[in-house]
Amino acid sequence: MDNEEETPEQMMDEIYANGGGDDKRYRLVVNGEQLDVEAYAALYSGRTKIVRLLFIADHCGNPMMRSETLRMAYDEIKKREDTQLFREVVQKIDGTLGPAYGMDSAWIDSVERRAEQKKDKLENELNAYRTNLIKESIRMGFNDFGDFYYAHGALGDAFKSYIRTRDYCTTAKHIIHMCLNAILVSIEMGQFSHVTSYVSKAELTPEALEPVTVAKLRCAAGLAYLEVKKYKLAARKFLEVGPELGNNYTEVIAPQDVATYGGLCALASFDRTELKNKVIDNSNFKNFLELVPEVRELINDFYSSHYASCLDYLGNLKANLLLDIHLHDHVETLYNEIRHKALIQYTHPFVSVDLRMMANAFKTSVAGLEKELEALITNNQIQARIDSHNKILYARHADQRNVTFQRVLQTGSEFDRDVRAMLLRANIIKYDFHQKQSRKI
Amino acid sequence: MDLSILTEALASKSYDKIAVICDNLMLQVAAEGTAFQNEWPYAIHLLGHIYADDINSARFLWKSIPPAIKEVQPEVGAAWKIGQKLWLRDYGGVHEEIRGFNWSPETQCLVAAFSDIYTRKMFQLAAAAYSTISVQDAALFWGMNEDEATKYALLEGWTLDEASRMLTVKKQPVVAEQKLDPGKLQRLTEYMFHLEH
Amino acid sequence: METAEALVVQIQALSGSAEDVSHLHSCLKQSEELLRQPTSLAPFLDRLDPSKHSLGYLYLLEAFTSCPISKEQANELILLIVRFVNSCNAEQIRLAPDKFVSVCKRLKDQAMLLDAPIRGVSAMLTAIRKLQPSSEHLTTLHPDFLLLCILAKCYKTGLHLLEDDIFEVDLPRDLFLYCYYGAMICVGLKQFQKSLELLHNVVTSPMSNLNAIAVEAYKKYILVSLIHHGQFSTAFPKYTSNVAQRNLKNFTQPYLDLASSYSNGKISELEMFVLSNKDKFELDNNLGLVKQVVSSMYKRNIQRLTQTYLTLSLQDIANRVQLNSPKEAEMHVLKMIQDGEIYATINQKDGMVRFIEDPEQYKTCEMIEHIDSSIRRIMALSKKLTAIDECMSCDPLYLAKIGRERHKFDFDDFDNVPQKFNT
C-alpha cells in the first residue's frame, strides 16, 4: 500500500487499528438504548414539549412507549389552555389509558368559557387604546392578543397579531420582541421561510443585540437552513450559537440539540480543514458537545479516521434521532453524506487502497464496498478506479495535456455545429420577416 | 452496358475502388434507362462494399436487389452471407462463408483478397483486444485450424502455454510519425495574427 | 403552329451572348400562353440543342412535361429530362429557376411512378449542382434528391451531398425536409452525430405553427440521442420556438417515456416497456431505431464500468449489464474495442478485462493535421460570421425593423456565440 502523506507508518497503524474488533474505543459505545422520554421532555418547555411528545408517539412504533408518551402529553396539555391539542391527544389515546385519560368535556368547557371572556376583555382594551391613539398601549394590546391566540393554539391568528405590533414599535427592543414572537410561532407552524426573514429583520436592528438574543436567532436560522436541506449553512449557524443560550430557549430548542444538529450537519458537509477549525477547535461549541458525548466522540473518530467506531456511534444514535421532530426527515441524507465523506476521506491520501482492509474499516463486504465506490466514482466524487481482480482501488490522475486537447477539439466542433445551426435559423427568420414585409406592401 | 472500367479495376487488383466504380456505373446506366438488373454484377458490387468495410452500403444494396435475381444467382446470396456475418460480428462465420461457396472465376480473386485482409485485420484485433487468448478462439477468428493458428501466432512473437492452450499476446509498439514540418510554424503565426485582429 | 415555329427560330438565334439570352427570356415569358396549347412540342424540341439553347429548350420542355402522360411515355420523358439536365448550360437555366425545378420535380415523379427511383438519382444531383450558385445554397431539389436516394437505397450517394455546409436557404420547408431526409440517410449509415445535428435543426427551427416534420424529427431525435449519447435531455435550447417548446412533448409521449425508462439503466425494464409500446413505435416506422436504442444500453452500461473499474471479471460484467454469460460479455467488449468505443484488453486466461486510458497522446502528425484543419475551419467560419453580421447590420429592412420594434427585438438567437469569436 503506497502512501503519499509524510507519516505512512502512523497512518497504516491507524487504519489497521480500525479493523480489530477489540479496539479500546469500542467500550464507549453503548448499544442503542431506548430513548428516555421523560428526560427528553424535561429539556423543553411550552408548546414544543407537547408537539415533540406527540411526534415521538407517532413515530416510535412501540406500543408501550407510545402509551407512556401520550400519557405525558395529556398531563402536560391539561396544565395549559390549548383545547385543540387536547382533543388531538385524546383521539390518539383512544381510551387505551383508562377513564382518567378520556375526553374531559368539563375541562374543555371551562377553558373555552374563560377564553371567550378573556378575548372580550382584550378586545375592549384594545379598542380603548386605539381610540386614544396611545402607540405603546396598542402594541401591548396586539401583543397580548398574540399571546392569547398562541396559548390557545390558534397559531395563524397569533402570528398575525404579533406582526401587527410592528407598526407600533418605537424601540429596537420592541422590534426584536416582535421578531422573536414571529419566529416562535413560525417554527411551530413549520413556516421556515418566515423564520429566515424575521431572523434577518432582527439582525438588522441598529442596536447591539443581547448575547442571548443572538444565540436564539442563530438557532432559529440553523433550523430554517436544516429544513431546506442547506446543511452546510445550518451547521455554521449552530456552531455560532453562544453559551448564553443555556436553557433560555427551551420553548424551541435544547442546547443538546445544538450539539447534535450542528455536529451532524458539519460532518455531512464540511471538509477536513473546516471540521478541524470550526468544530473540533471551537472551544465554545465544545461546551455544547460535552452535553452529548456520543456526538463528540463520533466527530473525533471521524476526524482521526476511526471510521468503524464513528459508524458504530452513528448506528446507535439513529433510532433516537429519527424521533426528533426537526431531524427526522434528514437523518438518512445526513447519514449517507457522512458515510460518503468518510469513504472519500479514507481514499484521499492514497495512490492505492486495499479494498479488503477498507471494507473491514467500514464494516461491510468487499462486494458491497465496490458498489458504494462505484457510485462515488460515477459521480466524480472519488477520482479512482477499482481493480476488481486484485481488489485494489487506484487513484486516477488525468493527464492535463491530453484532457486539454480533448476539450479544445470538442469545444471547436461544438462551436462549428452551433454557428452553422444558428445561421440556418437566421435564414428562416429572414424568410419569415420578408414574408411579413411583402404582405404589408 | 459498358463495364470496362470495372473489369480494368479488377484486373489491376484495385479492389478498394470497386465499390465506388460500381456505385457510379449503376447510377449512370440506370439514368440511361437500361434495364440493367439482370446483367448487373451484383456479387462483385457487394464484395466491393465488403472489401471497403462498408457493410451498411452492402446491406442497402442487398435490399435493392430484385428477389428474382437473388434466386437465380446463388453467388449474390453467398456474397451477402459474408456481409451478414460481418454485420452480426460472427467472426468465425465470415471465414466459413468464404470457404463455403465455389466462387466464379470473376469473383475468386476479390474474395481471396478480402479473405487476406480480413484475416490480417482479425489478427490485429486479437492483438489489440486480448492479453491472453485461447488457441481455439484464435483459430476461429483467423479461419485456421489450431496448428496453423499457433504457428501464425508464434511467428508474430506470441507465446504458447501448452498446458492451458493459451496464447500470450505480444503487443506491438505503435509507430507513428511525430515530426513537425516548418510549414506548421508558419501557419501558427497566421493563427496568432487572426486571433489578434 | 406558326408562332411556335417562330419561337424556335428565335431561340436558335438568341442563345449566344448574355444580352441575347436576356432578350430571349422576355420573349419566352410573353409566349407562355402559346406554349400552354396542347400541341405536340416534341418535334420542336428535336430541333434545339439542349446545351446551346438551354433556356429556350427549358421553356419548351417544361410546357411539354406539364401535360398529363401515360406510363409508357414516362420512360421517354425521363430520358428526355435526364439528357437535358446533363447537357444544359447552367447560366441559362438559372435565369428561370422555377421552370428548371418544375422539370426536375417531374423527373422525380415519373421515376417514382415507374417504381425506378434510381433512374433519377444522378440527374437530380447534376441538376442541384447546376442550379445552385454555390455549394452553400440549399435548393428546392435537395430534399427530392435525398428522397430518391432513400427510395433507391443509394444512401452513400445521398451522404455525399450532406457533406456540403449549407448557409443559404430560400424556403423553410426545403430546409425541414432536407434535414429530415438527410437525418434518415445518416441513421441508415450509422452517422449518428451528423443525424442529430440535422434533426436538431428541424426541432429548434423558428416556426409559428407546429408542423408534422418537426414532430417526426423530434421522435427520431430522442431515439438517436439515446443511441449515440446514451441520454436525452428534455430541455430545449432557449432559441427553440415557443410552439415547439409547448407542443412537441404532447405528441411524443411514448418516446419521452422510453427515454426515462432508459435512464434507469435496467435492460429488462426497457425491454418490457418497448414490448408494451411496440405498436406505437411500429406505426411510426421507428421500431428499428427503438431496437437499436435497446441494444445501445449494453454498450452504455459497459462504458460506464470503464469509468469505474480498472479490471473487472467477465462474469461481473455479465452480471452488471444483465448478459447471460461471460462469453456474451466478452463478445460485447470485443465489439466495442473493435469500434473504438472503449479501450481495454481481455485476459481469457483469468476471465478478466482490463480497462485502459485512451492511448491518444495528441502527438502524431495525423492528429496535428486534424487539429490544424479544425482551426482553419473555425477561422473560416468566424470570418463568415463577421461578414454576415456586417451585412445584416446594413440591411435596410432589418434596420427599419429594429428602429420600429426595438423593444420587441430578441437577441436570443445570437447569443450562443462567444463574444470573442464575434470580433
From TrEMBL, chain A:
Gene3D superfamilies: 1.25.40.570
Domain of life: Eukaryota
Alphabetical keyword list: Coiled coil, Cytoplasm, Nucleus, Signalosome
KW Kinase (keyword) present: no
Residue ranges that the Swiss-Prot or TrEMBL entry lists as coiled coil: 108-139
Localization: Cytoplasm; Nucleus
All residue ranges annotated as the PCI domain in the record: 231-400
GO CC, alphabetical: COP9 signalosome; cytoplasm
Signal peptide: none
InterPro entries xrefs: CSN1_C, PCI_dom, Rpn7/CSN1, Rpn7_N, WH_DNA-bd_sf
Primary location class: cytoplasm
Family statement drawn from the similarity comment of this UniProt entry: Belongs to the CSN1 family.
Alphabetized PANTHER family for the sequence: 26S PROTESOME SUBUNIT 6 (PTHR14145), COP9 SIGNALOSOME COMPLEX SUBUNIT 1 (PTHR14145:SF2)
Protein name from the UniProt record: PCI domain-containing protein
Originating species: Nepenthes gracilis
UniProtKB/TrEMBL annotation, chain B:
One cellular component (GO) term of this entry: cytoplasm
Cited InterPro entries: COP9_CSN8, CSN8_PSD8_EIF3K
Cellular location(s): Cytoplasm; Nucleus
Keywords carried by this UniProt record: Cytoplasm, Nucleus, Signalosome
Coiled-coil regions listed in the entry: none
Biological processes per GO annotation: COP9 signalosome assembly; protein deneddylation
Name the UniProt record assigns to this protein: CSN8/PSMD8/EIF3K domain-containing protein
The UniProt record lists the keyword Transcription regulation: no
TM annotation in the entry: none
Major location (coarse): cytoplasm
Span of domain CSN8/PSMD8/EIF3K: 38-175
TrEMBL record, chain C:
Main location: cytoplasm
Domain PCI: 191-360
Keywords: Cytoplasm, Nucleus, Signalosome
Localization per Swiss-Prot or TrEMBL: Cytoplasm; Nucleus
Domain of life: Eukaryota
One Gene Ontology term from the biological process aspect of the record: ubiquitin-dependent protein catabolic process
SUPFAM superfamilies, per database record: Winged helix' DNA-binding domain
One GO CC annotation: COP9 signalosome
Pfam families (UniProt xref): COP9_hel_rpt (PF22788), PCI (PF01399)
Family to which the UniProt record says this protein belongs: Belongs to the CSN3 family.
Name the record gives this protein: COP9 signalosome complex subunit 3
